[in-house]
Design goal:
It is a single chain. By secondary structure, the protein is an alpha+beta fold. The chain contains 11 helices and 5 strands; from the N terminus they run αβαββαβααβαααααα.
Length: about 230
């Protein structure tokens, strides 16, 4: 499969999930995954909140999910908005010290109340599922473990291994290509391989080989011939 075809298939199977409110625990995220698996097999499920390569300060990051088939992704998009009812076990809080009753606490009005967190009391998360807008190619390139390893040329170990005194072959130890490979069309590459197999890589090489084979023998051999 070519790269454009694979990228097109990836776009048709990826979905973008915006959650209100955002899950606060791993158990809540697992229940969202379980709800998505009802539409089909989910091969990738990634919460962008934990994407270390993205420096966004937004805490309410979406989830990118990739289904195995485009039909499963379309069924998930058609079900939007999807309401996930949270299990009590995932929303239960650990035991805490007793707090004073609400009747004894002073009442205070909060002006900056966010209504999206009202779903926490009911134990539901509203998921808006849309076609994915995630750029997978850029995300892969931002990954610090992507691509080859480039050694530090100022490192003492590198200098020692590359020094003429040690004689260590750098090409055998390098993790990157030491020279650029120029791609040739099939026909010139085939002809070059045939010439290399026959030992006739160049006309100059043939001439040098013939010249070396017809060189005069050493003086000791000539004296032996005259004595005979």
């Amino acid at each position: 499969m070519t790269f454009p075809a694979a990228l097109g298939r990836l776009s048709s199977t990826s979905v973008h999930i915006q959650m209100v409110p955002s899950p606060r625990r791993i158990g809540e995220t697992r229940q969202i995954l379980a709800a998505l698996q009802k539409f089909g097999e989910v091969t990738t499920f990634r919460n962008l909140k934990y994407d270390i390569s993205n420096k966004s300060t937004n805490k309410h990051r979406p989830i990118v999910a990739i289904f195995e088939s485009p039909d499963a992704a379309q069924r998930a998009i058609a079900s939007s908005p999807l309401t996930v009812t949270l299990d009590k076990s995932s929303t239960s809080q650990p035991s805490q010290p007793s707090q004073p009753s609400e009747s004894k606490l002073p009442t205070k009005q909060y002006k900056n109340h966010d209504p999206i967190f009202d779903n926490i009391a009911t134990g539901t998360i509203k998921c808006t599922i849309e076609p994915s807008r995630h750029n997978h190619e850029n995300a892969i390139r931002r990954n610090q473990y992507f691509s080859a390893f480039y050694p530090d040329k100022e490192d003492p170990i590198y200098k020692d291994m590359n020094s003429p005194q040690t004689g260590v072959p750098l090409k055998a130890l390098g993790d990157v290509l030491q020279s650029r490979k120029d791609r040739l069309p099939y026909t010139p590459a085939r002809i070059s391989g045939t010439r290399r197999a026959l030992g006739a890589e160049s006309i100059m090489g043939i001439w040098r080989e013939a010249r070396d084979s017809h060189e005069e023998p050493p003086e000791s051999d000539q004296e032996g011939i005259h004595r005979v």
